[in-house]
Amino acid sequence: MLKKNIYLMYAISCLQGMVFYGPIATLYRQAQGVTVFEITLIESISLALCLLLELPWGIIADRIGYKKTMIICCLLYFISKIIFWRADTFILFLLERILLSVVIAGLSGVDTSILYLSSRDSDSQKVFGIYNSLSMAGLLAAAFIYSALIGDDYRLAGFMTVISYGIAAILALFLTEVAEEAPERTTVKNFCATLRQILSDKYLILLLLGIAFLNETHQTVTVFLNQLIYIKVGISNTVIGYLYIIVTIVGMCGVYSSAMTRKTGKTVLIRICFLSAAAACVLLALTDSILGAVLGILVLRAAFSLFTPLQTQMQNDQITTPNRASALSINAVMIDSAGIGTNLIFGALAEKNLMWALLFGAFLCFCGLILLELFKNR
User: Fold this and answer.
1) Is residue 153 situated within a structural domain?
2) Please, how many CA atoms are within 13 Å of residue 312, restricted to the half-sphere of its CB?
């Protein structure tokens, strides 16, 4: 029965990856009169809400069960896409993002807990790799459909996204609850005990910091700085669109993470991912060629995608409390909190000199590797 959960989660991941307005998300908002500053303001509010809601959602998920949490979040996800589809003011786009923050915080740790507990007789790292890759596959399919069929019809792109998320919400109803060991009801007392347990494990903190350093370097460079890098080396906007599809395809290589781990071992794969990411940042900082820029972004995306299923498994393996969602929520807050600090440094350095920001990314990846080496050699 639990195997069914895995396939349902795969389908949900793919459907929720199908954001048909993804390639024109900023233009969509601007067409409705929302300015770039208002867009960034909405994003900042969203991030703050995610951090505030992360821990309460972890407690709620452990109290009501992971299936109910998944159903609630998928339903709210569906509603948020309806709001986005019909939004035509700053307030409505803000409301959509507030709902999205509730969903992101609610799903954090719950989706991976369902997969981890449903794959006890399987390779959970492989399951995580497929799950993440199917989200990328959904995004890729949506990008192709947008380019081929939708074009400038922004509202149609929004409506098709509503349909995709509606189907995902329906599929969530058929999940089977995985908290079969019937964990104790989560109270403030045992939540605090979980928090103390995590904070007292200095090696777990090293793991989380190492994960945060690679995650935030990848996020900042491949989402925000990449366009500045492309422009610097003379890549046109049209080519940037094609590169978006290529980078998305490379992001699907996480499905091979488990196979690589079996061949090389966890320690070697960790070293490959972090050193490759650091080298990619150095290349991006120093290159003036189109080939160097494209290669650097692709290597960084591949390194992150291969490491993601492994780090998800490593986090789950460290959990000894039955309140799994609460523990993963605490982990997420620690990772995101570290990310806020690194993001500020990235932004300040990029304003001064793009090369400095990229070299800082290489430094973070190297530091992350050292932290994970310390964790592995405890």
Assistant:
1) yes
2) 30
Q: How far is CA 181 from the centre of its chain?
A: 29
Task: Please tell me whether residues 201 and 173 are part of one structural domain.
Answer: no
More confident residue, 165 or 321: 165
* Residue 89 and residue 55 in one domain: yes
Q: Which amino acid is at 287?
A: T
The residue among 178, 206, 241 that closes a domain is 178
Q: Dump pLDDT digits (tens) for 243-254.
A: 878 888 898 888
Residues 148-154 have a mean pLDDT of 77
Buried residues in 223-258 as b, exposed as e (16+ CB within 10 A): eebbeebbeeeebeeeeeeebbeebbebbbbbbbbb
Same structural domain, 132 and 255: no
**Spatial contact of 4 and 119, defined as CB atoms under 8 Å apart:** no
Distances (CA, A) of 122 to 3, 259, 321: 9, 13, 21
- Are the C-beta atoms of 175 and 7 separated by less than 8 Å? no
Alpha helices in the chain (DSSP H): 2-17, 25-31, 36-64, 66-86, 90-107, 110-118, 124-145, 154-172, 188-200, 202-219, 226-232, 237-250, 257-264, 266-286, 290-317, 324-352, 354-376
Question: How many angstroms separate the CA atoms of 15 and 161, rounded?
Answer: 9
Question: 231 is written with which tokens?
Answer: 């422009």
Query: Could you tell me the CATH number of the domain that includes residue 167?
Result: 1.20.1250.20
* Per-residue pLDDT tens digits for 262-296: 899 999 999 999 999 999 999 999 999 999 999 99
